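writing this on my phone so excuse typos. first protein, seq and then structure
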Amino acid sequence: MLITFARAAGGSTLATVRRADGVVLELPGFDRKWRVPHDLAHAATECELGMSEGVFGSIAGGGVFGNMRVVGGKPRHDAADRSRRLLAANKRPLGVAEVLAGVVHDAVEHGRPAVPPELARGSWGIFSSDPFPWSPAQLSGAVRRLAGLAAEFERSGGALEFAWPDRLTSPVPAPAAPRRGRRGRV
């Protein structure tokens, strides 16, 4: 999947997503007050941390968020149902991706070279009591990657292509089996 981030009118960003199935989608950003696009923070963070069920892994798998629109290609006949199932199954990981991308975004936006591990762990603690699954080195890698991408975005005048790895495509859950049962006799 190829994601093109570009400055849009009014200063926000627009991510154009070209999925492997030929569908082209637009994802508007609501980040005009930030130097670094928030959706770019998602891409860098989710990719570095191997998050296949975050925003971009979900999109790669067929998820379409409410603020997105199809601008090219032909979606599958069951695209809406597949998207609904995938986004419902990924609800918790999408929340985790949101808070971790926010932590990494904040570090880069404010020029801090590392994410304070306690901040990331605290964000994780909102979702789980399990041990934090990423190391400080992985978080630092996400910050470095986003910082490099942000610098490239600025140098290019507000345009950047990001190749999303196929290995981080979220699987689509199978449809629920039809309920079978005996009807009550009257």
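second protein below, same order as before
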Amino acid sequence: MDTLLKTHIPTLTPYEKIYKNLHQNPGLSLQETLAASVAASRLQSLSGFDVRTEIGGTGLIGILKGEGKGDGRTVLVRADTDALPVEELTGLEYASKKREVDVEDGVKKPVMHACGHDMHVACMLAAATTLHSARKEWSGTLIVLFQPNEERAGGAKAMIADGLYTKHGCPLPDVVLGQHVMPFPAGTVGTKVGSFASAADSFRVTVYGRGGHASQPHRTIDPVIIAAHIVVRLQTVVSREVDPREAAVVTVGSVQAGQTENIIASEALLKINVRTVTPETRERVLAAIKRIVKAECEASGSPKEPLWESTSQFPFTVNDKDTTEHVSKTFEKYFGDKFDPEAHPLGGSEDFPILATEVPHKDGKGKGVPYCYWTFGGVDPGKFEDAKKRGKLQEEVPINHSAYFAPVIQPTMKTGVEALVVGALSFLGR
């Protein structure tokens, strides 16, 4: 493995340029045209890659057959491509200053790769190049998949619904692999068997009042007060209704009501996000939220029932035992003490598992194949250790979705490329 990587991994300077270009020119969910174009162009330049585009929007795949002895297995590796509506504050020379109209709501917004998907794309392209160069040394089928709209939990579903494994002829994988850059020391890699990322449920909840003049509140029902009570009361769901040994997060990320200070509005909108790690807790928390919202509306004399609109749902990410143990043994051998086989689960959520759980079985009976998801670090190791020693990790190390999040390019990219290549080769015949 070491020899293969040393022999075939390309110089990463061109991929650093790709990364900077994507970082400076991000695309919101459903608008990832540059990332898709760059990925397709690069894969098409590699002889032997069968590239298929416009799958579920801007999604695409590249299929490459190994030329080694034996049949080998079929391995799918995935990178996500979308950015976030965040105004970048990193101060980098290649920082995004882009603003674009979000197709979801028609509002012009600042755009930033605040979750590292630009790094994912660059790493995947360099890994694809490496495996292409080494194709005589492995057998089987490699599928590199670039997925749009991960941030809103729609991309994997859209690719499946558009016929990824049927109409678009993607070979049915035996295993699905993926990774994510995180605010850990660059050069490190981690995964674990079992639960590795939370489920997420997001809602828009509209509560109703009776509007009127601010000088006559007795003739109104104030939805802002209803919303305020809901926000405060929801804080007790995790602290008083969830087993302390379980993990759950309830966030009210947005409250919107009214246009001016002297008018009591007729309705208020709350945007709620829920993260849970077990089905039982998920069911309990969602039921508690609905109970509280309903009760607060009734307590305030709301004229009608609140309106619930689901905006996104992420599944649980549960790494397959055998697959993850196999990856862990390979990573431990390659990365040594830089690999953690008992890494902390992600606080965030992923739609990555859908690409595995929706794979039709080759015998036509049922669906689903095993998968493994891992993380790799993106923070300058020296700065990380210094902040850790001073107890300043939370204050000084930006997390994903922060306006200050930007992975140090190296050794982050090198590690991400190596992890993808090593992970894929561990399943491809040699």
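The chain has twelve helices and 18 strands. thats all i got for now
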